[in-house]
Amino acid sequence: xxxxxxxxxxxxxxxxxxxxxxxxxxxxxxxxxxxxxxxxxxxxxxxxxxxxxxxxxxxxxxxxxxxxxxxxxxxxxxxxxxxxxxxxxxxxxxxxxxxxxxxxxxxxxxxxxxxxxxxxxxxxxxxxxxxxxxxxxxxxxxxxxxxxxxxxxxxxxxxxxxxxxxxxxxxxxxxxxxxxxxxxxxxxxxxxxxxxxxxxxxxxxxxxxxxxxxxxxxxxxxxxxxxxxxxxxxxxxxxxxxxxxxxxxxxxxxxxxxxxxxxxxxxxxxxxxxxxxxxxxxxxxxxxxxxxxxxxxxxxxxxxxxxxxxxxxxxxxxxxxxxxxxxxxxxxxxxxxxxxxxxxxxxxxxxxxxxxxxxxxxxxxxxxxxxxxxxxxxxxxxxxxxxxxxxxxxxxxxxxxxxxxxxxxxxxxxxxxxxxxxxxxxxxxxxxxxxxxxxxxxxxxxxxxxxxxxxxxxxxxxxxxxxxxxxxxxxxxxxxxxxxxxxxxxxxxxxxxxxxxxxxxxxxxxxxxxxxxxx
Length: 519
Ligand code: FAD
Ligand code: SIN
Known about the structure:
FAD/NAD(P)-binding domain, Methane Monooxygenase Hydroxylase, Chain G, domain 1
């Protein structure tokens, strides 16, 4: 059986940043499900939130993040994010990442709920590509890092409470493998594809969360799913993201009658927090009996729009829409998971040798609602921190015991079409932007049945994540941040200003904000 020092699952920002750290000290195998550049990171548009501009302060970034999190952020985690963020972004620039500039200064964009212009971006709206390019270049300079594309991880191996390796299927060759390692970092991203409509690429199906849950890790705050208000709504087109930065630069939302409706819902209008804008759109759709609203940038200078948002402009053109002249049809889509595998401030999952970083994890930085453009920053900061803790663990861990695991069957990597379609529909209709206890209860029963019926591990993992989200949504009897229930429409601080935690054996329970979960 093959053995390496470290396995990283995922080649987005968190996995690549972790691999840079690990590859300086040991052998690293990066397993990634598709082509190595395929990830949510690659499609990131708006940019990275970081307090680097002259009129900004780390304390303001801290306050904005805490406010967006609606009472559920862990302050220590947010402090780490905003204080260490600038040094990691500077490091990325030193490694050759070309963020856009205004003269010789970085150019800062504006997004919702930020009190300053603080979003650094690259080639206008192609930030993710530039970050992936930079990190991949760095990883490729490290001779002990191997990247294996089309390697679908399905199980982490746990023996006597310690993680010893990973089982995966090479989907092109249809072969299955077991690799042992001193430490494993989960960097598999979120789980947008448990929903019918999502901005996420196809690889984002949540196995990291399911594998960790099956291994006995804690999953936190799974009810908090962020829906992006403005995904392209056009027959035959994917749910392509229309960045919040478009509204940051002056784009407005109109209903089917051409009325600008956001000022009726929030003082900050189009720049209200993301959950407020997304729910306002749903309300407006119901009120006007429509299936989309419109993003209008036609009042902005056409040359500015083309230059600032070249990729969005081109994509809209591809679907017959001119961003400078047409109102663009949009509606909300599942976008980001605030919850995930609970970790400490060093990416540790509570299981010896198992770490998690990036969107798969829940460090406590996002609370009930992520501040726009904080997730790339989280991937950088916590990817590096998790790697450093994995290095420390491996340097003192006892030798790996031998393993007698039989390999998986390659079919385990296949998704059952009928179950997947049914599951995504249930999630969209009953566990989406607007929820109600009765519907959640029925959805949970259906999801439990689908989970039992899943013929492959990949299908079961998808069903497990959906079921965890639905169970947490039913558990939390209040509305807060991205979680909104019509039967409990207000926040209830006395009872619910706490995290939800789920464990395979211990069920679902609450945990106080800002306290050590593994104590
Ligand atoms: P990802 O970048 O999603 O990478 C996950 C990796 O894991 C992929 O390589 C995937 O193939 C691999 N993987 C998954 N499952 C398996 C498996 N079972 N086996 C092997 N490999 C697996 N955030 C911002 O801060 N700013 C933005 O401007 C921004 N724009 C966004 C635009 C879009 C369209 C989307 C979808 C998200 C955006 N976000 C943005 C969110 C942000 O991009 C993600 O949260 C972040 O990139 C996640 O990074 P990650 O490394 O955790 O995961
Ligand atoms: C966007 O560009 O609107 C996405 C930013 C984010 O998800 O943080």
